[in-house]
Amino acid sequence: MTLISPLNELKIPIVGSPLFLISNPDLVLAQCTNGVMGSFPALNAREEEGDPNMLETWLKKITEGIDSHNQKNPDNPAAPYAVNHIVHKSNIRLEKDIEICAKWKVPVWITSLGARPEVNQVAHEVKGIVLHDIINNFFAKKAIDKGADGLVAVAAGAGGHAGTLSPFALVQEIREWFDGPLLLSGAIANGGAVLAAQSMGADFAYIGSAFIATDEANANQNYKEMIAKSNADDIIYTNLFTGVHGNYLKPSIKAQGMDPENLETSDSSKMNFSSGASKPKNWKDIWGSGQGISAVKSVGPAKLLIERLKEEYKESKNRILNK
Predict the structure, then answer these.
(1) pLDDT at 145 over 60
(2) Residues 111, 300: Cα–Cα separation, whole Å
(3) CA–CA separation, 244 vs 92, rounded Å?
(4) Each residue of 292-301: pLDDT tens digit?
(5) CA distances in angstroms from 80 to 129, 308, 309, listed in the order given
(6) Which of 60, 68, 191, 210 is the most buried (most CB within 10 A)?
């Protein structure tokens, strides 16, 4: 498998996935300075919060934070970071966000909801690499044909807008033709699962839900604690809330007065999110999560989560070698 710098700079094969509304500079820095690639959606840097240049403010904080860490720890440099762009035509901020990321020479660009050659070109002009997230082999081929450098395979069990394919099937089909960087997402929350992802052919594990239950994450404390108290039985797959199927915490749905076992099926073609008419009243309090969260037992610093993952990864390797 061919890896590309800066991916080959990671000390442990984990990328923290960009969490909508939740990932922020504090979480990204905690991830990067502890050896995991951190990431955030560009749209999380919300201009309506008083700073018209919020994305630039975030990139400055992350860049300076990484530089400061590296100066103090020359023998233990931070991992690189990534910014996620929704490249769908509905994202009216895309052109401006791309310009800002190019200015700051963002090392890794993660693109979602469509593959755009012009976005890939800008990333490459500043020596960045592009990872595109996909849910099947068809979209994987389209992404690479349009200039992406690597892929994020979003398999069944992932948080948010997950795919439906088994990770075994999805990785197998992609590796039949693609030997570049491949990340796997889907119910990965312990070090053994990270090793398993590599064993089946992926280069890195793409972990999101476990990082929600960290001190640095910009999430409601009740959300964090619900992650720590829940397991796979507490997850439901539905398209009711966004028009696209995703995995959500049943207790958060119940808290909004709905029965998660008897939800309607949304017709995405008729959803009108601009008016808000099709959203539940308190849709921000209906919380996404992947199926692997039983590995998360408490809320705490991201550093402790990463240390646990590293130790479990090491133990899993030793267990295999000793068999």
Answers:
(1) yes
(2) 29
(3) 20
(4) 999 999 999 9
(5) 11, 20, 18
(6) 210
Mean predicted confidence (pLDDT) in 24-44: 97
Helix 302-321 vs helix 191-199: crossing angle, to nearest 10? 50
Q: What is the per-residue pLDDT for 274?
A: 35
Q: What is the mean pLDDT of residues 252-273?
A: 74
- Tally of residues, the chain: 323
Any idea what DSSP says for residue 1? -
Q: What is the pLDDT of residue 272?
A: 38
pLDDT at 273: 34
pLDDT for 12: 87
The confidence score (pLDDT) of residue 284 equals 80
Exposure string over 280-299, b if 16+ CB within 10 A, otherwise e? eeeeeebbbbbbbbbbbeeb
Number of H helices, E strands in the chain: 11, 10
Mean pLDDT of 84-111: 96
Q: What is the DSSP string of 138-194?
A: HHHHHHHHTT-SEEEEE-TT-SBS---S-HHHHHHHHHTT--S-EEEESS--SHHHH
Beta bridge partners of 151: 132, 182
pTM for this prediction: 0.91
- Beta bridge partner(s), residue 37: 15
Burial of 9 (0-12, 13-18, 19+ CB in 10 A): middle
Q: Are 164 and 271 in contact (CB under 8 A)?
A: no
Backbone Cα Rg of the chain: 19
CA–CA separation, 197 and 237 (whole Å): 22
Dihedral-angle region of residue 157 (phi above 0 means left; psi in -120 to 50 means alpha; beta otherwise): left
